[in-house]
Design brief:
Radius of gyration: 20 Å
Oligomer: single chain
Distance between the termini: 9 Å
Strand content: under 5%
Number of domains: 1
Mean pLDDT: 84
Low-confidence stretches: 200-205, 207-211, 221-233
CATH topology: Tetracycline Repressor, domain 2
Largest sheet: none
CATH architecture: Orthogonal Bundle
CATH superfamily: Tetracycline Repressor, domain 2
Number of strands: 0
Number of helices: 10
Amino acid sequence: MMENTAETPEKAAILDAALPNVAFDGWSDETLKRAAEGAGVSLAEAKALFPRGAVDLALAFHARGDARMLAALGEAELEAMRFSDRIAHAVRLRLEAIEGEKEAVRRAASLMALPQNAAAGAGAVWGTADAIWRALGDESEDLNWYSKRATLSAVYSATLLYWLGDESAGHEATRAFLERRIADVMQIEKLKAGLRKNPLTKGLMAGPEWLAARVRAPRSTPPADMPGHVSKP
């Protein structure tokens, strides 16, 4: 079952109150406590809304970024773009959604890098990639469903880390970095297509293609051993 990441008014108020403190206290239980006070919510209620404390608070921040990206993507004129440009545009919109919150993002990345939080962090990034593909109308099945999200997760993660250290005007360096990563991915896809068409190499693809035909994309959530899966309590 997917985790409920809907931003209720109570969650929004606590998150808004937390952001100014994150630069000083990080995503911590102390930040949650101060945010609850600032939002006029009891600590008990805050802990009920964010059961894992700082981790859930940071994930709420991530989910807000996804929601803002999807809203902006819904207003974008994508039809005239090449598909690779649509993906790049979506990633840029995701970064724009957290513009001005670099320290909060940096602190969240540090929190999710801890071994005990790695699964939650991977699930959040997987969710961003899945949201982008769904918004772009992806209807892939089989192994492609996973490979698309895994590839985009890697591209987004690398671009996000580059963006955190980018001081170029208008983040032009990040834009160029993203375009290079997507170009690399497209080259791999072209190589795979060429292997399928080449009489000398298409046999090499028979095994992977056979396996892919027997792997089905989930209707709503990845299986338990894939990033992004959240088990029912």
